[in-house]
Amino acid sequence: MILRMSEHGDGTQFTLLGGVDAVDAGDLPAHYGYPDDLTRCWVRGNMITSVDGAATSGGKSGALGGDADRAVFGALRALADVVVVGASTALVEDYSGVRLGATEREARRRRGQSEVPPLAVLTRSGRLTRDAALFQRTEVAPLVLTSADAAADARSHLGELAEVIDASGSDPASVDLHVALHALAQRGLLRVLTEGGPGVLGMFTDADLLDELCLTVAPVLVGGNSGRIVAGAGEVQATLRLDRVLTDSEGYLCLRYGRARRGPAD
Q1: Which pLDDT score is estimated for 10?
Q2: Least CB-packed of 93, 190, 196, 258 within 10 Å?
Q3: Pathway of this protein (predicted)?
Q4: Distance between CA atoms of residues 258 and 251, nearest Å
């Protein structure tokens, strides 16, 4: 239903949500497909926030989640070629490798993907412990996207547990996201899903590399001083368009925002 405003908002139209057909969890891939015929990395972010804008509760984003969020989280992972995450988020949230069922694996094989997408960990320092769950509880060795200064030590320390990639640009002490995405593209990993944290999502936003954002709004108030889903040194305004809204009986809102598609050379 479209509502027209006659006072104080002439020309503004609102859409009253509700009354749409139900979407089963098994149908989610049809609502979150990547563009066809990609020739470059397409970067999708997936984050959760409380109604009052908190990115975490008790220091962890997982504490905000519900059944709807977990269903979308799993569907997005099943569609991705690679899951990119910052090292601090991987450790705080105790990341292990992606786990998929037989149905999801078969769907991936039909799409020409590997059965399980690898994690790609962004870390400037390359300092990751060998006993972390992301190395010890995974079917696929993670990729470690690190700086030129740290790459040799990281390879020596991690050995066969990961593929360490030098992702520096002009600064050998830093990770350049353009270089990191180029390395992923060379490996055929074009459907990129980043799960943050806020600093990593801020880097993608600042570099104008985020193509879309899947945002779950949890029906809770957190208060306190929790950060937002995007963090960075400076303010960046990136205009998004709302492509899709899903909700469940608990009141979770699953929002999909997109941006105008960039050209292959961008």
Answers
A1: 61
A2: 258
A3: Cofactor biosynthesis; riboflavin biosynthesis
A4: 22
